[in-house]
UniProtKB/TrEMBL annotation:
Domain ABC transporter: 15-237
Protein name: ATP-binding cassette sub-family H member 8
Keywords: ATP-binding, Membrane, Nucleotide-binding, Transmembrane, Transmembrane helix
Cell location: Membrane
Gene Ontology MF: a single term: ATP binding
CDD domains given in the database record: ABC_DR_subfamily_A
Lineage: Eukaryota, Metazoa, Ecdysozoa, Arthropoda, Hexapoda
InterPro entries: AAA+_ATPase, ABC2_TM, ABC_transporter-like_ATP-bd, P-loop_NTPase
Transmembrane intervals: 491-511, 532-558, 570-590, 597-618, 659-678
Pfam family, one: ABC_tran
Membrane topology label: Multi-pass membrane protein
Entry keyword annotation includes Phosphoprotein: no
Gene Ontology CC terms: membrane
Gene3D superfamilies, A to Z: P-loop containing nucleotide triphosphate hydrolases
Length: 689
């Protein structure tokens, strides 16, 4: 494609920007009908005050940002012909120089030999230390030079440099300019450079002075200075700015120009060149995978944390939650005989001697059941102990308890009213803790049934008469003494499976986004599907290890029930992990700071955990919440996992396949949201620089 300038049709143009409009919000218009012509084979110095939109314009030229209206033409065929040095360092600080050049070199499509020879050449030219040096340990100036080296690595036709000389000493700065002049001298290379050091831009062939979203002037430095009769560019820029302010009748360049902004029907066809290539390249995917491998290799503490976290969490869960509480204190007030419970030792605990106090036998029976007995002389002092948290309840036996109980058993409906009353055991509980209260009640009731059955058996009476006439047959699924851990284990593994990859994904992508690494890779030619795919591959490896650790702790070490298909269990868990990962992509794209991402992650964690029936069954929720809860990412998959693990349901069972469908649906939804957010945000440049 041969471009010609609007003003000078005879000249070949590398970049032509025609009436470019762009704003981030209706009140922050950055480009206001900007025109720009960059002749091929020249250096174009783009100057302007901070925040005037230079970086925005460059990102549109390299195809990362899109215009609202206008046209940009770039005379190159692919992104490989562009070398881009962003304003921020945008380099992996954990990598060595060799690893950095290898990564970008492979993205640019260079062979290993080309990368090696070019690296050697540029290291010498830019006066950088050895290839083994770690980027994070370089000085600020060395870092900037390495960033420039990456932009020069593939010898591009068009070099776009956003403030390359910041933090570089004057000698090196001069040699960089000299190098740029040399490469442009052949007439084949073009450089667009922004700088705050206006005077150094004197060496450029053309200067574009940007202010208020337009170019105030676009000509050679000498013409510019001659026109305003100045001997330096700074003065010329000041003169121009004054002129523009007078012309627009205001000094305020943030003036609201929403009225003059093109309305949707006025907008011209927007041509944004060099949009990301749609296909997936094996070489670029490999470069990304190798890059991720290097990252993991260099961040061993983070990797250890990611592998130890599920281990510790599952271990803590199994050891801290769901076990029956032990050593619960119960106050006993026994008015059956003088001298207290110590006297119980005198009586045998078995046999059918009905002259021995039966309260002793019952108390002995419940003593075995995780309950610690403390004796009190009267109800008032026992209640006081409960009030002062020294006991979870009190149990009271009246005087003549044994005689009354025997009369109640032997006389049945003929037993006196007094016998009926005295044979009642009175229990007062602290029910402020529902779980402990219910457990103690269960043990007191079951202990009573056991005690009575033993007595009946010893006396040769049918023990069934003493039992509640309900027979608990073997449970169809699970056992008749269900554990809270068995109920929550599938939910816990699903929750970890969803959130661990989410945390890792948000961390990795957001770090790359905030440091400008993602943007740089995208400009270099990496596509969003490649970023997602390579991340998924790496993350799946981590996830498989994390899942194996969690399965081992939950189902082997702590023997939670897993009677169904292990391959289907793993597939379901990985699909939940994939949904978590895709949620991570969405959060990382939507949030510009790690604080925002933390709030978003934490903000969804508790509602998800509560509304998904993990802490409490869905059946116990308000009907409005229940009608929403089923649709959340963890509800149906958790039920499906419970179906497979505890009930051995096949994948054709509706509960199980609905879990798979839910995960797949959420994966699709999160990916769609990620894609739409990328489109809506018009790029992946983090707002806060
Ligand atoms: N992603 C974004 N979302 C919203 N506003 C943005 C975004 N990126 C930049 N801006 C705003 O657009 C304006 C132009 O920013 P830009 O970075 O293009 O300026 P600049 O001329 O490169 O500044 P500097 O010389 O300081 O780098 C600024 O007001 C900035 O706050």
């Amino acid at each position: 494609m041969n471009l010609t300038s609007r003003g000078d049709p005879a000249r070949d143009m590398m970049v032509v920007v025609d009436k470019a409009y762009k704003r981030y919000t209706p009140y922050s218009v950055v480009l206001r009908g900007l025109n720009m012509n960059v002749p091929t084979g020249t250096i174009y110095g783009l100057l302007g005050p901070s925040g005037c939109g230079k970086t925005t314009l460059l990102s549109c030229i390299v195809g990362r940002g899109s215009l609202d209206s206008g046209n940009i033409s770039v005379n190159v065929k692919s992104k490989r012909s562009i070398g881009y040095m962003p304003q921020e360092l945008a380099l992996y600080t954990e990598f060595s120089i060799r690893e950095t050049t290898l990564y970008y070199g492979r993205i640019f499509g260079l062979s290993f030999e080309q990368i090696h020879s070019r690296t050697k050449e540029l290291l010498t030219f830019l006066d950088l230390p050895s290839e083994d040096s770690i980027v994070g340990k370089l000085s600020g100036g060395q870092g900037r030079r390495l960033s420039l080296m990456i932009a020069l690595l593939h010898d591009p036709k068009l070099l776009i440099l956003d403030e390359p000389t910041v933090g570089v000493d004057p000698v090196l700065s001069a040699s960089i300019w000299q190098h740029l002049l040399t490469i442009c001298a052949t007439g084949k290379k073009t450089v667009i450079i922004t700088t705050h050091y206006i005077e150094e831009a004197r060496q450029a062939h053309t200067i574009g002075l940007m202010r208020g979203g337009t170019l105030l002037a676009e000509e050679s430095p000498n013409q510019l200075m001659a026109r305003y009769n100045c001997n330096n560019l700074e003065q010329a820029f000041l003169e121009l700015s004054k002129k523009q302010s007078i012309a627009s009748g205001t000094q305020d360049e943030t003036v609201d120009v929403t009225e003059s902004y093109p309305s949707p029907e006025d907008k011209k066809t927007v041509v944004t060149p060099l949009q990301s290539t749609k296909y997936i390249s094996k070489a670029r995917i490999t470069a990304q995978l190798v890059k991720n491998y290097y990252w993991m290799k260099r961040n061993k503490p983070i990797m250890c944390f990611l592998l130890l976290l599920p281990l510790v969490q599952c271990f803590l869960f199994c050891t801290c939650i769901g076990r029956d509480p032990r050593g619960l204190k119960l106050a006993v007030v026994n008015h059956e005989f003088e001298g207290g419970l110590n006297r119980c030792m005198q009586y045998p605990s078995r046999g059918c001697n009905l002259s021995y106090p039966l309260s002793c036998r019952y108390v002995e029976n419940i003593r075995k059941k995780t309950i610690v007995i403390t004796e009190f002389p009267d109800i008032a002092s026992a209640k006081e102990a409960v009030r002062h948290n020294r006991a979870w309840g009190l149990i009271y036996f009246a005087q003549n308890y044994t005689e009354a109980l025997i009369e109640r058993i032997s006389e049945k409906d003929k037993a006196s009213k007094m016998a009926m009353e005295l044979s009642d055991v009175h229990i007062y509980q602290d029910m402020s803790n529902q779980y402990i209260g219910n457990l103690m009640r269960r043990d007191l009731l079951m202990g009573y049934v056991d005690f009575l059955q033993d007595l009946f058996r010893d006396c040769g009476w049918p023990p069934q008469v003493a039992d509640i006439p309900i027979l608990m047959e073997p449970a169809i699924y699970g056992n008749n003494n269900p554990s809270f851990v068995h109920f929550t284990a599938p939910a816990i593994i699903s929750l970890f499976e969803f959130y661990l990859p989410m945390i890792f994904t948000v961390g990795a992508i957001l770090m790359e986004k905030m440091a400008g690494l993602l943007e740089r890779s995208l400009v270099a030619g990496i596509t969003i599907p490649e970023v997602i795919l390579s991340h998924i591959v790496v993350q799946l490896v981590v996830l498989v290890i994390q899942t194996a650790i969690m399965m081992f702790v939950l189902f082997v070490l702590f023997d939670n029930p897993l009677i169904g298909s292990i391959p289907w269990s793993l597939t379901l868990l990985l699909s939940i992990g994939l949904a978590g990962m895709c949620y991570g992509f969405m959060v990382a794209i939507l949030c510009d700071t790690d604080t925002a991402a933390t709030f978003m992650g934490l903000g969804t964690f508790f509602p998800l955990a509560m509304l998904s029936g993990m802490i409490w069954p869905l059946e116990g929720m308000h009907w409005i919440l229940r009608s929403v809860g089923w649709a959340l990412p963890l509800t149906l998959p958790t039920e499906a996992f419970r179906g497979i693990s505890a009930r051995n349901w096949p994948v054709t069972h509706p509960t199980v396949y609905k879990g798979f469908l839910s995960s797949l649906g959420w994966i699709g939804f999160f990916l769609l949201m990620t894609y739409s957010s990328v489109k809506l945000k018009k790029g992946l440049r983090a707002k806060s620089k």
